[in-house]
Write a structure and sequence with these properties.
It is built from 7 helices and 5 strands; from the N terminus they run αααααβββαβαβ. The chain has helices at residues 2-6, 10-22, 31-36, 50-59, 62-74, 140-153, 170-179; strands at 82-92, 114-122, 127-135, 159-163, 182-185. Helix 6 (140-153) packs parallel to helix 7 (170-179). It starts with a helix and ends with a strand. The relative contact order is 0.12.
Length: 188
């Protein structure tokens, strides 16, 4: 699936994914040191420079990311009951002019604009299902309904949600009931 979406650099894509898991790091400048000491998926186990890594990551389009998420979720077993554990966090950003970086309510306020991102995964087997990034000014409680719609859009029908207290609101509880989703949510 990665080869169909990414093309000839799919080996580098897989190497970077494995690097981020094994090294518990995603800093591109350390990838060449990692690559020197580990087996690689690239043709001929070629080690790429940190500038090639940066160029490659910048070349991945939003459409490619969405194509991967669509394909990944299409391959999941939609007939079984699953529990989607969903959580989000935010990061202060100093990267400059990025359209969805906005001032908001970060967990650690440094006075910088913020990016929010979230991950939904199958709580039965800890398999990631989808992720989202959204503007820093949007609070968790207001993002949940979009997430529920996304789960339905990917074809998950027999599903329950596991949520922390950041999503607790009367509106969200009523919306989950309206959608027919079971849920466990921590109260404030």
């Amino acid at each position: 699936m990665i080869g169909d979406i990414i093309g000839k650099n799919s080996g580098l894509f897989l190497d970077l994914a494995v690097y981020s898991v094994i090294a518990e790091n995603n800093a591109g400048q350390y990838y060449p040191d990692y690559a020197f000491n580990h087996p690689l998926f690239t043709d001929g186990m070629k080690i790429y420079s940190d500038s090639k890594v940066s160029d490659f990551i910048n070349s991945i389009t939003r459409d490619q990311s969405l194509a991967f998420l669509d394909g990944w979720n299409e391959r999941q077993d939609h007939s079984k009951k699953i529990y989607i554990s969903y959580d989000s966090t935010n990061k202060n950003c100093q990267a400059g002019d990025i359209d969805f970086v906005e001032y908001g309510h970060p967990k650690e306020d440094t006075g910088a604009p913020v990016i929010n991102y979230s991950v939904a995964y199958d709580g039965n087997n800890a398999k990631p299902l989808y992720y989202e990034d959204y503007p820093g000014s949007i609070v968790d409680v207001s993002q949940l309904q979009y997430t529920l719609e996304k789960a339905g859009g990917y074809g998950y029908k027999n599903v329950g949600f596991i949520l922390d207290r950041g999503y607790f609101s009367k509106e969200n509880i009523h919306y989950m009931d309206k959608c027919g989703y079971e849920f466990v949510i921590m109260m404030k």
